[in-house]
């Protein structure tokens, strides 16, 4: 049984703040400060360049990848860390298309994170040869899979509404139609139960700065199913993905297995912070996290609908088809959210009219939820949001 009092104590949480935005950026794990200081002074400071060998920096992407693998139902040796999520999306999609060369359609949905669609649009434009990105509504994905589709590229949990796709069913439908399945787990890993092996997924990618609390700019990961690991060609043929990087050959030869999906120099400082963040997950049962997340989100929805009847629920009502976030709509959602943040309740805004709240049981409890409901009701009842400073949009919303 997961001890959520213990996990809460593992984070730095600013006094007086209810943090409902862990679905965008997780809070600071206390252990990260000490771990990072030791890395900076004892490893980089004392060992200098020797740290690549003596401190294990070179193998860090695979080592940390194996720890992430445990959280997404992947076998050891199938996940590697590094670079950004956009790069990992590019790698997964380009590899999938080469594995299915006679087809030209990539299927996604309009609930996918726009960055994934941008990457697909850029790649398909570069490839030419009749490639097409087909974007449908989330409810239309499964029935849109046919024999023209080379790959599906879906974010499991919709970043706006929290709507959760049925990964196993969509992957099975893709395979029956001869397509490959790529999944973005940005809003899944650390939030919902994921089992890539059971779902028979081909490729998966994700970030680590949300529910895994790896910090701003924390490195992304990529998963490749074992059946594809030695066939998938990394179109970004980076030095670290070479079979023998320090032979300094002029011709690229991909490394065996998941190592070929490494691209650039590992972000050692960021990976060190992530390692400390992953320590929090030792002894945590994902089923407990999921159950508590549902309990907290259901409490929030019920409380908001009672206290703030003018708001419209923008997320699925059934928690079984919802991730670990809830959205409510309001015509002045941005201003309302700014008023909430000014009063110590932090969520975020997603255009055009959604206030988004994340539920992360590692550091949230029922008292936090009740306080957030009370502050939201006060902001709406008294129109505290209707001030000029709350309507001025910042660069990051």
From TrEMBL:
Question: What are the UniProt keywords, alphabetically?
Answer: Hydrolase, Pyridine nucleotide biosynthesis, Pyridoxal phosphate
* Tree of life domain: Bacteria
Modified positions (N6-(pyridoxal phosphate)lysine) in chain numbering: 210
One Pfam entry for this protein is KYNU_C
Query: Cross-referenced Gene3D superfamilies, in alphabetical order?
Result: Aspartate Aminotransferase, domain 1, Type I PLP-dependent aspartate aminotransferase-like (Major domain)
Kindly list the cofactors needed: pyridoxal 5'-phosphate
Listed binding positions for pyridoxal 5'-phosphate are 85-86, 113-116, 155, 184, 187, 209, 239, 265
What GO biological process terms are annotated to this protein in UniProt? anthranilate metabolic process; L-kynurenine catabolic process; L-tryptophan catabolic process to kynurenine; NAD+ biosynthetic process; quinolinate biosynthetic process
Instruction: Give its E.C. classification number.
Output: 3.7.1.3
GO terms under cellular component: cytoplasm
Pathway field of the UniProt record reads: Cofactor biosynthesis; NAD(+) biosynthesis; quinolinate from L-kynurenine: step 2/3; Amino-acid degradation; L-kynurenine degradation; L-alanine and anthranilate from L-kynurenine: step 1/1
The record's catalysed reaction(s) read: L-kynurenine + H2O = anthranilate + L-alanine + H(+); 3-hydroxy-L-kynurenine + H2O = 3-hydroxyanthranilate + L-alanine + H(+)
Q: Enumerate the GO terms in the molecular function aspect.
A: kynureninase activity; pyridoxal phosphate binding
Q: What InterPro entries does this protein's entry cite?
A: Kynureninase, PyrdxlP-dep_Trfase, PyrdxlP-dep_Trfase_major, PyrdxlP-dep_Trfase_small
Subunit organization: Homodimer.
Q: Sum up the protein's function in the record's words.
A: Catalyzes the cleavage of L-kynurenine (L-Kyn) and L-3-hydroxykynurenine (L-3OHKyn) into anthranilic acid (AA) and 3-hydroxyanthranilic acid (3-OHAA), respectively.
- Which protein family is it in? Belongs to the kynureninase family.
Protein name according to UniProt: Kynureninase
Q: Which organism is it from?
A: Mesorhizobium australicum
């Amino acid at each position: 049984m997961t001890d959520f009092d213990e996990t809460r104590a593992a984070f730095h949480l600013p006094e007086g703040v209810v943090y409902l935005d862990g679905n965008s950026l997780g809070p600071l794990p206390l252990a990260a400060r000490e771990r990072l200081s030791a890395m900076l002074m004892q490893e980089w400071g004392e060992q200098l360049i020797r740290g690549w060998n003596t401190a294990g920096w070179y193998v860090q992407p695979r080592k940390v990848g194996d720890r992430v693998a445990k959280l997404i139902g992947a076998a050891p040796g199938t996940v590697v860390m590094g670079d950004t999520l956009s790069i990992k999306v590019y790698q997964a999609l380009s590899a999938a298309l080469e594995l299915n060369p006679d087809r030209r359609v990539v299927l996604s949905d309009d609930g996918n994170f726009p960055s994934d669609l941008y990457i697909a649009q850029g790649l398909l434009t570069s490839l030419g040869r009749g490639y097409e990105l087909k974007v449908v509504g989330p409810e239309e994905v499964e029935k849109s899979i046919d024999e023209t589709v080379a790959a599906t590229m879906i974010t499991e949990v919709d970043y706006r509404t929290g709507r959760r796709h049925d990964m196993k069913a969509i992957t099975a439908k893709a395979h029956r139609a001869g397509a490959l399945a790529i999944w973005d787990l940005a809003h899944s890993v650390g939030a919902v139960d994921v089992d890539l092996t059971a779902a028979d997924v081909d490729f998966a990618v994700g970030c680590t700065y949300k529910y895994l609390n790896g910090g701003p700019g924390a490195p992304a990961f990529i998963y490749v199913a074992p059946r594809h690991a030695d066939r998938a060609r990394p179109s970004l043929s980076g030095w670290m993905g070479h079979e023998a990087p320090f032979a300094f050959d002029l011709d690229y030869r991909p490394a065996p297995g998941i190592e070929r999906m490494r691209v650039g120099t590992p972000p050692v400082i960021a990976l060190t912070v992530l390692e400390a963040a992953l320590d929090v997950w030792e002894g945590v049962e994902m089923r407990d996290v999921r159950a508590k997340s549902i309990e907290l989100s259901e409490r929030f929805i019920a409380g908001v609908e009672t206290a703030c009847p003018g708001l419209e629920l923008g997320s699925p009502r059934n928690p079984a088809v919802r991730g670990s976030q809830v959205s409510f709509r309001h015509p002045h959602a941005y201003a309302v959210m700014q008023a909430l943040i000014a009063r110590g309740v932090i969520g975020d805004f997603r255009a055009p009219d959604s206030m988004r709240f994340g539920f992360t049981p590692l550091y949230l409890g029922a008292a936090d939820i009740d306080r957030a409901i009370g502050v939201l009701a006060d902001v709406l009842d008294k129109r505290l949001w209707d001030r000029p400073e709350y309507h001025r949009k910042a660069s990051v919303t």
